[in-house]
Amino acid sequence: MVRYRSIQKSFGELQVIKGIDLDIYPGEKIALIGPSGSGKTTLGRMLMTLEEPSSGTITIEDEPLWQMEKKGNLVRASEKHLHRMRSKVGMVFQHFNLFPHMTVLRNVTLAPRSVLRLAKEEAEERAVEMLRKVGLENKLHEYPAKLSGGQKQRVAIARALVMQPKVMVFDEVTSALDPELVGEVLNVIKDIAEDGNMAMLLITHEMEFAREVADRIVFGAEGRIVEQGTPVELFENPQSDRLKSFLQRFR
Ligand code: ADP
Q1: Torsion (CA) 178, 184, 190, 194 in degrees, nearest 10
Q2: pLDDT-based confidence at residue 161 (cuts at 50, 70, 90)
Q3: Residue 83 pLDDT > 90, yes or no?
Q4: What pLDDT sits at residue 74?
Q5: How far is residue 60's CA from residue 62's CA, in Å, rounded to a whole number?
Q6: Which of 96, 103, 192, 212 could pair with 152 in a Cys bridge, judged by C-beta atoms 3.0 to 4.6 Å apart?
Q7: What is the annotated signal peptide range for this record (predicted)?
Q8: pTM of the prediction?
Q9: What Rg do the C-alpha atoms of the chain give, in angstroms?
């Protein structure tokens, strides 16, 4: 579904990603773990075309994200191409970024109406279905200010799901929440993971959650993938000292 190849990324002098290859198979759930500052978010944002790599390529369903080869030359992708590629990816952020002046329902119908150009009724039908999935069908006409952090984050998840992406990036979606609200959001993600053939890239510090949901754990540090494998392999039998000491913090 997704191929990262030889990805490097620098911000000015700072090289954040130092050569990463990663495949995400259709329907696969990958948990990306690692210390803060190791480049996880940057890797996720690239898939959403919010960051460009300094070098390397990313393809989704064998199509490159930014650049297309034409008669041997690399040319930049057109806006139309980017638009189409972006629609394959959904992303949920640490901060929910809901529109405060719109109801829950309008927040979720906005993209289906403006991007997919769905009729109002169809967009609403889809949105209500997604809001039901995240347990918020009774909040359709509320404004975000009236919702808890966990509820806002569930609206943000519904808003991404409604676009029916092939792959979803969840970027530390519980980090900004009060501890008692974390569970409800993780449970919603677990449900989605269970019922879907959608691929997921879960950037998370919730190790128990990663162990339960992910097919594969990828551990990155200092801009490289250090170790990857099944949850049992990585959590029960870590090989590298880097991962062993990282996991100590969660014991
Ligand atoms: P992680 O998600 O693993 O915590 P990030 O991908 O957020 O790591 O960040 C990796 C490094 O890149 C950090 O040192 C961060 O400060 C830096 N960084 C991220 N985005 C930018 C940016 N837009 N400009 C400059 N530095 C950035």
Answers
A1: -170
A2: very high
A3: no
A4: 64
A5: 5
A6: 96
A7: none
A8: 0.94
A9: 19
Task: Please give the span between the terminal C-alpha atoms of the chain, in angstroms, as a whole number.
Answer: 34
Residue 77 tokens read as 């992708």
Contacts of 210 (CB under 8 A, 6+ apart): 31, 33, 202, 204, 217, 231
Pick the atom of ligand 1 nearest to 172's CA.
Answer: 2
Mean pLDDT, residues 233-249: 95
- What's the CA-to-centroid distance between 107 and ligand 1, angstroms? 28
Residue 51 Ramachandran class (φ > 0 left, ψ -120 to 50 alpha, else beta): beta
Please report the beta strands in the chain, taking only residues with DSSP state E, as ranges in sequence order.
2-11, 14-24, 29-33, 55-60, 63-64, 67-70, 73-76, 89-92, 167-171, 199-203, 216-221, 224-229
Name the pairing type of β-strands 55-60 and 63-64: antiparallel
Pure H helices in 63-215: 79-86, 104-114, 120-133, 149-161, 179-195, 207-213
Test site for ligand 1: of 32, 33, 41, 54, most ligand atoms within 8 A of the Cβ: 41
- Test site for ligand 1: of 22, 33, 42, most ligand atoms within 8 A of the Cβ: 42
